Amino acid sequence: MATPHNAANMGDIAETILLPGDPLRAKVIAETFLENPVQFNTVRNMFGYTGTYKGKKVSVMGTGMGMPSIGIYSHELIQFYGVKNLIRVGSCGATQENARLGTILMAQGACTDSNYVHQYNLPGTFSAIADFTLLKTAQEMAEAEGFPYIVGNILSSDVFYTETPEWKQWAKMGVLGIEMESYALYCEAARAGVRALGIFTVSDSIVTGEATTAEERQNKFTNMMKVALETAIRL
Ligand SMILES: O=P(O)(O)O[C@H]1O[C@H](CO)[C@@H](O)[C@H]1O
Ligand SMILES: O=c1cc[nH]c(=O)[nH]1
């Protein structure tokens, strides 16, 4: 049955889904890589598709920007559509000099400045981590393809345009890059006992000022898309 944000019926969405923030990146992934893609959602233009990749059923759907947005979509995918493996395929800003444009960052862990986890009333601090099987498989795929990648900690931030350069403090703690969703995705997955991973292509460097265009962020991050899809078919 449809939800307030998703027109799909039960069974329309695969157990494994790729989740870009940008719904047009979802369209690109579906049209470039999936065989026989069928669109299951257009509500709020948050495009979602299911097709097959090398014969295995895989879905892809946009999640929007920020933790409230991915929180809604991932919660519905897990709780109402039975999705078991959620792989975010995002863009991020690098906070370390060795994370050059185009490098794939894999979020072994996610830090945050958000209150998302407060809903669980935990008596301490929750460490949001990737599913180990997803992470290991994605790392092996990137290694096999010879794509540049780094595995480590990232920051999921509520703020894109910050008043002060807090990123420097996170960088001192080894944080590789900043994006805006994975902490909430890891929380939703942990709470439901399903698997999640965030991987990102470095779209800009907060350290050096290098940046890609919006067109490149939508269309050109194919290494990351291949890593996610090759991971999806090995689960
Ligand atoms: O490219 P996506 O997947 O949207 O990810 C990053 O880009 C957006 C900001 O430009 C935020 O959503 C951030 O997490
Ligand atoms: O969230 C994001 C995404 C790309 N670049 C940034 O600086 N932040």
UniProtKB/TrEMBL annotation:
SUPFAM superfamilies in alphabetical order: Purine and uridine phosphorylases (SSF53167)
Active site per database record: D204
The name this protein goes by in its record: Purine nucleoside phosphorylase DeoD-type
Role noted for this protein: Catalyzes the reversible phosphorolytic breakdown of the N-glycosidic bond in the beta-(deoxy)ribonucleoside molecules, with the formation of the corresponding free purine bases and pentose-1-phosphate.
Organism this protein belongs to: Muricoprocola aceti
MF-aspect GO terms: purine-nucleoside phosphorylase activity
Binding site for phosphate: G21, R25, R44, R88, V89, G90, S91
Keyword Ubl conjugation found: no
InterPro entries assigned: DeoD-type, Nucleoside_phosphorylase_CS, Nucleoside_phosphorylase_d, Nucleoside_phosphorylase_sf
EC code: 2.4.2.1
Coiled coil: none
PROSITE patterns: PNP_UDP_1 (PS01232)
Domain Nucleoside phosphorylase: 17-225
Subunit structure comment from the entry: Homohexamer; trimer of homodimers.
Family from the record: Belongs to the PNP/UDP phosphorylase family.
Keywords (A to Z) from UniProt: Glycosyltransferase, Transferase
Amino-acid positions noted as binding a purine D-ribonucleoside in the UniProt annotation, renumbered to this chain: H5, E179, M180, E181, S203, D204
Residues marked Important for catalytic activity (site): R217
Keyword Transferase: yes
Reactions this protein catalyses: a purine 2'-deoxy-D-ribonucleoside + phosphate = a purine nucleobase + 2-deoxy-alpha-D-ribose 1-phosphate; uridine + phosphate = alpha-D-ribose 1-phosphate + uracil; a purine D-ribonucleoside + phosphate = a purine nucleobase + alpha-D-ribose 1-phosphate
